[in-house]
Amino acid sequence: MLDCPTRPEGHGMFSRIVLTCATAALALTLWSGAQAQMLDRVVAVINDEAISYRDVEARVRLALVSSNIPDSQEARQRVVPQVLRKMIDERLQVQEAQRLGIVLSNADVDGAIATVEQQSRMPRGALLSNLARQGVDPARVREQIRADLTWMRLVTRVIGPQIRIGEEEVNDRLQSLADRQGLREVRAAEIFLPVESPDQEAEARAMGERLQEGLRQGTSFQSLARQFSRSPTSSNGGLLGWVSQGMVDDEVAAVLETLDRGQTSQLVRTSSGFYLLQVLETRIIGQSVNAEDSTVTVARMTLPVPAGAPPKADLMERAFALTRNAKSCAEFDALATKAGAPLPPRQGPVRIGELPPELKGMVAGMAANQVGVPMDTPQGIVVPMVCSRQDAMVVSPPTAEQVRRQIEDERRDMLSRRYLRNLRRAAFIDVRM
């Protein structure tokens, strides 16, 4: 029997003292298959709002499925603490938004889901239906997305007006960029696992190692960031944007410097916690990509639609599921053969600007060895893949307005972390077993 305290000795300290012990017991309960009355029991109270076993079970299932982590007792023991902490943060964020009169509509949530599908190169409507088929309640997905959106709107309304960027600060950044012109910068994404007290060290490291295993099994970095990262960037799949030396922690910058396009780091320990980092693109400071003049070789898989076939939306989802994990055009060809489709023909090298309109917009944002979104055409369901890409670069130093927005984003990120930390400290958080 786990011996966990059940009443707080101080609002802020209680969650740090009890959470690890309590969530270990919770993971065992969820794995053993709790009865209905157990599922309705309260796991945690955040101010005057309760989280039940049922709530946590549903979110754990979402986290495991979307992260491609096999459902086991050991996996749940590692995942439950992060899931419960994220749920507690979400309750605090939504409560603060309600206090300030910030409310989101269902249309806002629908739009965010469509954006996630677009970023993940999924057909419209595929996200919720794919998860539902794997036992995930779509309402829980909407709940998480609503919380993320609500916090983003709160940060924009409350923190945005506090940010003042002077001309001198902008000019200093422009001069710094000019001094570093010709050096490399990267477009990166992050997963952040905080370590707020020594007893969280082993738990955060174990979670990071589990996420690394998920990445090795083909789970997208963005999916893991949305479920497990505790950074404000989590709602955007962990996207940091373009960064270079001096814009992030020295430990993070040093690791990013060693990564090439498409590579993911090992766990990085900083003073605040653990990071996993991924480099999405690289470029030279002072240059930018001219997509129209960049050249690509594109493969297109065509899946015929026979008479009496299922609805087009179902076929689009199947095409996405078939091709999404292809890492090269050789794998893409093998998948076509497996599906009984013709070998995907190649087009190129060709300028992106010369591609057909239905392909140009999609391919412009794709990297080499990346699969596109299935398209409904008269010939059938067509799935494109970029086999190779050679970017055309142009000299394009950033404008003062671009630099101002970048500094604002950095300041907003820092202040939003501080805001949430203050909400945690002021809250009554009672984790119960």
Automatic annotation (TrEMBL):
GO terms for molecular function: peptidyl-prolyl cis-trans isomerase activity. Coiled coil: none annotated. The keyword Signal applies. Residues 183-281 form the PpiC domain. Keywords: Chaperone, Isomerase, Periplasm, Rotamase, Signal. SUPFAM superfamilies: FKBP-like, Triger factor/SurA peptide-binding domain-like. PANTHER family: CHAPERONE SURA (PTHR47637:SF1). This is Parvulin-like PPIase. It comes from Magnetospirillum gryphiswaldense (strain DSM 6361 / JCM 21280 / NBRC 15271 / MSR-1).
